[in-house]
Amino acid sequence: MNKALYQRWLAVGLLFLVLLLFMLGVVTPLISNGLAYHEEKTDLLFRLQRQQKIAARKDSVAQNLETIKRQFQEQGYFTHRDTEALASADLQNIVKTAVTDAGGQLTSTQGLPGKIEDGFNRVAVRVRMNGTMETVRSVLRSFAGNVPILIIDQIDITPVRGVRNRGNKTEPSSQLNVSFQVVSFMRVIKQ
Q1: For residue 97, how far is the Cα from the chain centroid?
Q2: Which among 6, 52, 60, 92 would be 20 to 30 A from 22, CA to CA?
Q3: CA 103 to CA 132: how far, in whole Å?
Q4: If residue 156 lies in a helix (H) or strand (E), which one and from where to where?
């Protein structure tokens, strides 16, 4: 009897061992994978909802972008001319008006070849003028508040030599020779 009871307990023990191995080998990985898939599903649902919210704002963002573009165009920061030559001529007229209004003397203006930078065509004019320090200051101030935006580049200011008097002394002059570039930008027209 002892042997039969022993065999029964051995059979029950083996059954529990088989069930334990089955649980460890089959059921536990299934549950683990199920939990991992559930977590991944939750993460993907969160991402989907976030993307749907972003997509729902698309029309609003596009409308705001159009409003910003329209306001930007209305502000006139860039030259609205179709060609570089017309933009350069406008720039030369702006320079001429600024120098003469400030009481200076315009020696020369020369249009420079344009360069395309970051989607904009750089239009530049080389300017030479004479005037006092106050004249130069007035000209530069008029450029600072101008629309379209004007940028001063490569400025060179040198004093004009004084005039010799009868006593062979040089009298100082308040006149200055000024050379600089005025730069404006126009949009590159895509064809």
Answers
A1: 32
A2: 6
A3: 9
A4: strand 151-159
- Both ends of the chain: CA-CA distance in Å? 103
> Rounded CA gap, 5 and 122, in Å?
101
Alpha-helical regions (H) of 1-129: 2-22, 28-56, 58-75, 84-101
- 3-state SS, residue 176: strand
Collect all residues with Cβ–Cβ distance below 8 Å to 78 and sequence separation of at least 6. Answer: 120, 148, 149, 184, 185, 186, 187
By the 8 A CB rule, do 182 and 93 touch? no
Q: Report how far Cα 147 is from the mean position of its chain's Cα atoms.
A: 20
* Class of CATH domain 84-187: alpha beta
Query: Could you give the CA distance from residue 129 to residue 176 in angstroms, rounded to a whole number?
Result: 8
Q: What is the 3-state secondary structure (H, E, C) of 105-152?
A: EEEEEEEEEEEEECCEEEEEEEEEEEECHHHHHHHHHHHHCCCCCCEE
DSSP assignment, residue 37?
H
Q: 4-42, pLDDT tens digit by residue?
A: 888 888 888 888 888 888 888 888 888 888 889 999 999
Residue the block writes with tokens 């005037």: 131
Q: Enumerate the domain spans of the chain.
A: 2-56, 84-187
